[in-house]
Amino acid sequence: MTQRKAMCACGDISITFSGEPQRVFRCHCDYCQKRTGSVFQVSAWFPMEQVVAKAGEPRVFSEHNMLTEYMFCARCGSTVYWVSEYVQGIVCAAVGCFVDAHFPKPTLDIQNQYRHGWVEAIEGVPEYEGFWTPDE
Ligand SMILES: [Zn+2]
Ligand SMILES: [Zn+2]
Questions:
Q1: Are 81 and 98 in contact (CB under 8 A)?
Q2: 25 with 106: CB under 8 angstroms?
Q3: d(CA 93, CA 120)
Q4: How far apart (Å, rounded) are the C-alpha atoms in residues 41 and 31?
Q5: Quick one: pLDDT at residue 132?
Q6: Residue 109's CB: how many other CB atoms inside 10 A?
Q7: Which residues have their alpha-adjacent CB atom under 5 A from ion ligand 1?
Q8: Average pLDDT, the chain
Q9: pLDDT score recorded for residue 131
Q10: Which CATH number is 3-114's, of 3.90.550.10, 3.30.428.10, 2.170.150.70, 3.40.50.300?
Q11: Which residues hold their Cβ within 5 A of ligand 2, which is an ion?
Q12: pTM for this one?
């Protein structure tokens, strides 16, 4: 089965998944902009059972809300993966940390009220203002 490895910029922190992500999100919200320093973030959702390996000892950041814990590298600063009480049983990973130009494209585009004017919509991908929840 395909394995996909997300790694921080310096290589100290990594997480490896088997198989395909369940969903891929692009989020434009103000928090994701600040957290990443970019104008949107892209994250892949994997069921926890698909985690096959972890390496390194990430620092944990959860100031945004106490329900989400972002695992980042204390040395280089990359946020590699996170878990949230909002989506139990799921591990989210930063798609950029896979450095894979063939990674599946986003299936959901959320918080579009924050989208920068020059950022194009993704053809065929549903757009939401605000959050998307699994019940929709
Ligand atoms: Zn690092
Ligand atoms: Zn966001």
A1: no
A2: yes
A3: 23
A4: 10
A5: 79
A6: 21
A7: 8, 10, 12, 73, 75-76
A8: 94
A9: 82
A10: 2.170.150.70
A11: 27, 29, 32
A12: 0.92
Ligand 2 centroid vs 1 CA: distance in angstroms? 30
Which of helix, strand or coil describes residue 14?
A: strand
Dist. CA 35 → ligand 2 center (Å) = 9
- Here the tokens at position 63 are 């100031």
Distance, C-alpha 34 to centroid of its chain? 14
Q: Residues 55-99: pLDDT tens digits? A: 999 999 997 667 899 999 999 999 999 999 888 999 999 999 999
Identify any residues that bridge with 83 across adjacent strands, giving them in sequence order: 69
Q: Give the model's confidence band at 40: pLDDT under 50 very low, under 70 low, under 90 confident, else very high.
A: very high
Q: How many angstroms is it from 76 CA to the middle of ligand 1?
A: 4
Rounding to the nearest 10 degrees, give the CA dihedral for residues 25, 73, 116, 91.
10
Write the DSSP assignment of 72-109 as a string of letters.
E-TTT--EEEEEEGGGTTEEEEEGGGG--TTSPPPSEE
Ligand 2 centroid–CA 40 distance in Å is 7
Question: Tokens 């059972």 — which residue?
Answer: 49
Residue boundaries of the structural domains of the chain: 3-114
